Amino acid sequence: MEALIALIIGVLTACGVYLALRARTFPVVIGLTLLSYAVNLFLFITGRLTVGLPAVISDQAVGYADPLPQALVLTAIVISFAMTAFIIMLALKARAELGTDQVDGRLDTGDAHDERGGERG
Q1: Which residue, 86, 91, 30, 69, is CA-closest to 12?
Q2: Which of 35, 36, 105, 109 could be bridged to 80 by S-S, CB 3.0 to 4.6 A?
Q3: pTM of model > 0.85
Q4: Burial class of residue 16 (count of CB atoms within 10 Å of its CB; 0-12, 13-18, 19+)
Q5: Angle at CA 22, nearest 5°, toward 104 and 5?
Q6: Can you tell me the distance from the alpha carbon of 58 to that of 36, in angstroms, rounded to the nearest whole number?
Q7: Cα–Cα dist 119/93, whole Å
Q8: Who's near 60: CB < 8 A, 6+ residues apart?
């Protein structure tokens, strides 16, 4: 089970880094989202998976689930959602101001073709 989770985290991280290094903003947003998923999964797994055990320690409980990774992941999910919304709004503003969705603001050949009135698919 640990090898499968490690493989999933590795694939999410690799895809996230690959997409974050793209020149357009939408793949960068998807890449950052995949990276946050990988980090959240890593944090969640550090608490060891337990099924059917209480999250709060009591005297009668035989075992317990560590609540700290769950709280960290929940906080990370909220923060990553807010950051994704901010990045999307920033990308939309940059698209409106610059006329392109390139990360560095340069026009590529497809964008230059669009400004001359051409069709783009």
Answers
A1: 30
A2: 36
A3: no
A4: buried
A5: 140
A6: 33
A7: 22
A8: none
Question: b/e map of 41-74 (b: 16 or more CB within 10 Å)?
Answer: bbbbbebeeeeeeeeeeeeeeeeebeeebeebbe
Core vs surface per residue 89-101: b (16+ CB within 10 A) or e: eebeebeeeeebb
Q: Read off φ and ψ for residue 14, nearest 5 degrees.
A: -65, -45
Query: Do 85 and 77 contact (CB within 8 A), yes or no?
Result: no
Of the candidates 111, 109, 91, the one whose C-alpha atom is nearest the C-alpha of residue 27 is 91
β-bridge partners, 24: 102
Closest listed residue to residue 39, CA positions, set 1, 82, 77, 4: 77
54 contact partners, CB below 8 Å, separation of at least 6: 61, 64, 65
pLDDT tens for the 121 residues of the chain, in order: 788 989 999 999 999 999 999 988 899 999 999 999 999 999 888 877 777 777 677 777 777 777 888 888 999 999 999 999 999 999 899 889 888 888 877 776 665 555 555 544 4
